[in-house]
Amino acid sequence: MTKLRLYPHRVIPVAAVTWRPWWREVDGVRTPLPSLLDGWDYAREERIGVGVIVDPAEVLDATGLESTAQIKLVALAECRELLRRFTAAQSLPSAPEGPIEVTLTIPAGEAAHRLHLSTHLVLADPGQTSGHRVPRVRGARLAAGQTFTLTLEGDASRFPTEAVAFSSLGLEDVPWTMMRTFTDLDDSFMGGVRLFINTEHPIGQRALDQTSGAQMKGFLQTDILRILVGEVARSDEVVRRGYVDGSVGDVLSMMCEQFLRRDLESTIQVYRDNIAKFERLLHLGVNQWDGVI
Question: Which of 27, 101, 143, 276 could form a disulfide with 51 if both were Cys (CB 3.0 to 4.6 A apart)?
């Protein structure tokens, strides 16, 4: 359904703007941005960009502005799962003759699931313009392109992961650790759980290396499941069935079913009653030694 937007000021007509498609930049090479980003990794920074072509005469006539240099192209990426927003802006030249482009950087470890991308032309400098309904408020939206949803899918790392030197965080020199900020199982998993891998530790380096990382996968999965199950088991929270998609309870339930062949409730009960049995089931289910011996 098309949304009708009414503004208190004059705007740029659709015919005066040509929105260029989004692109992805890797090692200086640009390729069209697909709707599904195969091979994406939480631990890698992403550079994406977009461009626009404007008809300066039509823009000025429609808005009443004195110069296109009063306008900025703004690119916006929203990660609603992590409540993150990333922006980049580029001023239009006073006499644009070709595409105006802007590049947006998505920091490593700051996004998950999907990004909602949008482009806007906004008033950057009201100047001394006057006239009926001429835009005068800085940031006033003058035109907007179509929104684009980018689904993130990581072949190299499907878990929210960050590679970092532990000495910079004041942490002990261990291969990896987990940070949990969730308060209950209904919280967002991507927003409440983060795996940090130590770039200064030889085993951490092996886990990050594309050739040897597959061998370390079982060890990582074992520690992740052990820590998360233990966190829940030591809390007073009552475990139930049916959590919201993407929540801590939902993801942990799927992990228990995949690796332990048990639902979350029975897994927590085994941990509380007989932690040694839980460890045996964990090692049996994850099979961390596969590919190592």
Answer: 101
> What are the backbone angles phi and psi of residue 90, rounded to the nearest 5°?
-140, 125
For residue 83, what are the contacts with CB-CB under 8 A and spacing of at least 6?
Answer: 191
Q: What is the pLDDT of residues 93-140, one digit of tens each?
A: 988 888 999 999 998 767 777 899 999 999 988 877 667 778 878 888
Buried b / exposed e along 58-90 (16+ C-beta atoms within 10 A)? ebbebbbbebbbbbbbbbbbbbebbebebebeb
Task: Output the six-digit token pair for 236.
Answer: 């007073």
Distances (CA, A) of 281 to 3, 208, 228, 240: 53, 27, 15, 21
Q: Which residues, in sequence order, are CB contacts of 115 under 8 Å at separation 6+? A: 77, 78, 79, 106, 149, 150, 152
Cα 109 from Cα 118, distance rounded (Å): 21
DSSP, residue by residue, 95-124: S--S-EEEEEEE-TTS--SEEEEEEEEEES
Task: Give the span between the Cα atoms of 27 and 46, in whole angstroms.
Answer: 11
**Distance separating alpha carbons of residues 81 and 112, to the nearest angstrom:** 7
pTM: 0.57
pLDDT digits (tens, 9 = 90+) for 133-143: 788 788 888 88
SS3 33: coil
Task: Judge whether residue 269 has pLDDT over 90.
Answer: yes
